[in-house]
């Protein structure tokens, strides 16, 4: 289900549950991109900002799942191949790092993605969702370390007895 995978990727790009990664340099001073980094320096890496960087993403603030579907690539305006939606999970592309990167990258990413896809797929196929107090979700973000919604999301499930029908009765 490439489109569902793209939606999940786009949500994790815009709303990474862990918006910062933490690293500490080794026991030697070094230079990175012209910056002097002292030994044992702790650095917070702003994953949230990296995944909304306008130099890497076209319309970075917008929710566009299709950006992960196309190759060659008008939506992102880059030549990179985004076709394989399984690729960009923190392994080989440092513009997209919701699960961190390298040796301390999230060891639970495969499990997390499997559970997310199965859960979201079932929730969408088996229910129609009504939002409390309107027809749009308020996406304003809170200020906690894990960037939850500022206003709790309250929805009502309407069961689809025939999940293959387009509209639930
Ligand atoms: C959507 C779900 C998840 C997200 C977005 C997520 C994200 C992350 C991130 C960003 C890190 C830090 C990586 C780094 O510093 O490079 C991390 C570390 C970690 N995650 Fe996850 N994670 C998720 C689910 C899970 C699950 C399901 C498990 C276990 C079953 C898990 C286990 C861990 C562990 C053990 C670490 C620490 C790894 C280390 O320090 O070596 N995570 N995760």
TrEMBL record:
<comment type="similarity">
    <text>Belongs to the cytochrome P450 family.</text>
</comment>
<dbReference type="GO" id="GO:0016020">
    <property type="term" value="C:membrane"/>
</dbReference>
<keyword id="KW-0812">Transmembrane</keyword>
<dbReference type="GO" id="GO:0005506">
    <property type="term" value="F:iron ion binding"/>
</dbReference>
<keyword id="KW-0560">Oxidoreductase</keyword>
<dbReference type="GO" id="GO:0016709">
    <property type="term" value="F:oxidoreductase activity, acting on paired donors, with incorporation or reduction of molecular oxygen, NAD(P)H as one donor, and incorporation of one atom of oxygen"/>
</dbReference>
<dbReference type="InterPro" id="IPR001128">
    <property type="entry name" value="Cyt_P450"/>
</dbReference>
<keyword id="KW-0472">Membrane</keyword>
<dbReference type="InterPro" id="IPR002403">
    <property type="entry name" value="Cyt_P450_E_grp-IV"/>
</dbReference>
<dbReference type="InterPro" id="IPR017972">
    <property type="entry name" value="Cyt_P450_CS"/>
</dbReference>
<dbReference type="InterPro" id="IPR051103">
    <property type="entry name" value="Plant_metabolite_P450s"/>
</dbReference>
<keyword id="KW-0503">Monooxygenase</keyword>
<dbReference type="InterPro" id="IPR036396">
    <property type="entry name" value="Cyt_P450_sf"/>
</dbReference>
<keyword id="KW-1133">Transmembrane helix</keyword>
<feature type="binding site" description="axial binding residue">
    <location>
        <position position="106"/>
    </location>
    <ligand>
        <name>heme</name>
    </ligand>
</feature>
<dbReference type="Pfam" id="PF00067">
    <property type="entry name" value="p450"/>
</dbReference>
<keyword id="KW-0479">Metal-binding</keyword>
<keyword id="KW-0408">Iron</keyword>
<keyword id="KW-0349">Heme</keyword>
<dbReference type="GO" id="GO:0020037">
    <property type="term" value="F:heme binding"/>
</dbReference>
<protein>
    <recommendedName>
        <fullName>Cytochrome P450</fullName>
    </recommendedName>
</protein>
């Amino acid at each position: 289900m490439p489109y569902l995978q793209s939606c999940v990727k786009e949500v994790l790009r815009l709303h990474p549950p862990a918006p910062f990664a933490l690293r500490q340099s080794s026991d030697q001073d070094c230079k990175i991109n012209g910056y002097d980094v002292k030994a044992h320096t702790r650095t917070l890496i702003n994953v949230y900002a990296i995944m909304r960087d306008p130099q890497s993403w076209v319309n970075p603030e917008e929710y566009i799942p299709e950006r992960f579907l196309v190759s060659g690539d008008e939506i992102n305006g880059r030549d990179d191949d985004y076709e394989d939606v399984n690729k960009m999970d923190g392994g080989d592309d440092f513009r997209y790092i919701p699960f961190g990167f390298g040796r301390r990258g999230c060891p639970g990413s495969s499990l997390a993605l499997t559970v997310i896809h199965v859960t979201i797929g079932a929730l969408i196929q088996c229910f129609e969702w009504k939002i409390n107090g309107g027809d749009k979700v308020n996406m304003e973000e809170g200020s906690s370390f894990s960037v939850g919604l500022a206003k709790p999301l309250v929805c009502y499930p309407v069961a689809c007895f025939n999940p293959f029908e387009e509209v639930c009765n």
